[in-house]
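tool_call predict_complex ligand=adenosine-5'-diphosphate
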Amino acid sequence: MKPKVLIIEDDKLTREIVVNALSKEGYEVQSTESGKVGIEKITKEDFDVVVLDINLPDVNGMVVLDEIKKTKPSIEAIIATAYESVETAIEGIKKDVFDYLKKPLKIEELVDSVKKAFLAKKLKSQIFDLKSESMFLSFLSHELKTPIMIISNTLELLLGEAGNKNVYRYSEETRELLEIINRQTQKMQALVEDTLDFAYISSDFFVLKEKDCVLNKIIKNAINSIIKFAEDKNIQIIEKLPQQDVVIKCDPEQIERVIVNLLTNAIKYSSAEGRITVSLQEIEDNVKIMVEDIGIGIAKENLEKIFEPFYRVKDVNEKGTGLGLAICKKIIELHRGKIWAESEGIGKGSKFIITLPKQS
Ligand code: ADP
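tool_result ok
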């Protein structure tokens, strides 16, 4: 559908020029010289944008504007006036006018303003719809992730990481600067992804997909997905899983994700040649999962804080967003379980313990 624009302007020549220019841009344009007719049209039909002259022969443009905002608040209004009056501009701003153009109108400026007004209207209604359809977060995530991805891909090309090492030749200094942009972009990418994930999991839209699952299998899958990362650091992973299947009601994807997260941390916060033990036990109606490492350990005062969003222990040089454990905690609590950390202190390794009810 073509965007619909109404021009309310008493000067015939200006009106014709504007109508002509906007029609060429593909808009469906109507026009009138009268404020009263303008109000009538707005009441009867749906317009996206109204371009409004303030000095009309019959009604003051501000009255027309009031009427627009009262009856069709989603219409974006652009005011055009010959008077450079600060009061008019302030009044316009107060009435939520999209743009304020001085006469004589510069046609390019006007076309550009109408274009932006239409986009703003579309975006507002999209956000409105998305909110009501519980999809605002995925919209936001797309809007944020896309530009970051483009920056990151472009940097990859500039840095010659896509296999064209010799295409761009930089001085040492330029390369260093590009590397800084690259590192910060990667940080931003991880932060956006984790923040959106955390917001999504914390929101009402998120529901667990629970079913009967074999926990031994979920743990094995989690280990398989990080095994290479552990081998690269010469870290040994010891499994202490019962012979028989341990079946619980849970969302397998989310529980696997929690265990992957704990294992990744255990690898990250261990020095080379470390050892990680993963165990599973059934205790009456509950299960207990433990991920234990012999890495850098955690000071007593930080054992609870590390589960808070964005909390990271200072002086630890590993990359991260500080959201991993906050996400784990949310997921476990949604399963009506508990998660906590234990450590004898700095340098003495850490233990992450999860308990979950077998059935809901
Ligand atoms: P991130 O790893 O992205 O910083 P997390 O929420 O996963 O975020 O962890 C928060 C903090 O908890 C980490 O920055 C680290 O200081 C500490 N931490 C997590 N796991 C361990 C571990 N296995 N050993 C020592 N410290 C850990």
